[in-house]
Amino acid sequence: MDKEFNQHWGTSLVCVLCENCDRRYVKPQSLLITRCPNCHLEKLKTFENSEVFKPAEYHPECYLPYVISTPRLRSILEEFTRDVPFSAHDMDCENILARKRYIFLPQWLVDTQLQARWQAEIGFDYKVMSHEDRYDDRNGGWVSRKLEETRVRWESRLGSLDRTYHNVRTAGIEDKIDP
Ligand SMILES: [Zn+2]
Questions:
Q1: For 8, which of 59, 71, 104, 139 could close a Cys bridge (C-beta 3.0–4.6 Å)?
Q2: Distance 15 CA to ligand 1 centre (A)
Q3: Ligand 1 centroid to 55 CA: how many Å?
């Protein structure tokens, strides 16, 4: 891998290819891993032909290293297994550690700019007062009753939006991003 590419990642990287599903990855040279994160088979092989695979086009903006070391994981697991009452014989810290697997959940961080025009009709409530008169013999003739009614006044509105979104997270495990 060329020097400039390694500088972006801050470590020495090699290309690997899965012989089963044809996925290609870059990994730190020091990371001894042969299991493919996509198909989970032990089929990863170092890929020499950098002409065919040019990862230098994809410099990372940021990357996350594994932050939990094995000793720290051991103490977390010890604490967890200790607190489980009547646990199965197999539920032992060392057994769990022996089966641990790194799982990669790749994500794209997408920057985007959005421009839009909008048009709407907006309704404003208002009250209308009126009176209803009726003749009531028992109450001495004409009686007036106040009536209150809610009506809606519709008005047109126009506007525009210009927004920028940074680092919107989207799944990086798909082959393409649906528009
Ligand atoms: Zn694979």
A1: 59
A2: 14
A3: 18
Q: Where are the alpha helices (DSSP H) in the chain?
A: 3-9, 70-82, 93-98
Residue 169 alpha carbon to ligand 1 centre in Å: 24
List the chain pLDDT tens, one digit each, 179 residues: 566 667 777 778 888 889 999 888 888 888 888 888 888 888 888 877 666 666 556 677 777 777 888 899 999 999 998 888 888 888 888 899 988 877 777 788 889 999 999 999 999 999 999 999 999 888 888 989 999 999 999 999 999 999 999 989 888 776 555 55
Partners of 32 in beta bridges = none
Residues with CB under 5 A from ligand 1 (ion): 18, 20-21, 36, 38-39
d(CA 95, CA 101): 12
pTM of the model: 0.42
Overall number of domains in the chain: 3
Same domain, 52 and 90: no
Supply the range of the domain harboring residue 91: 67-101
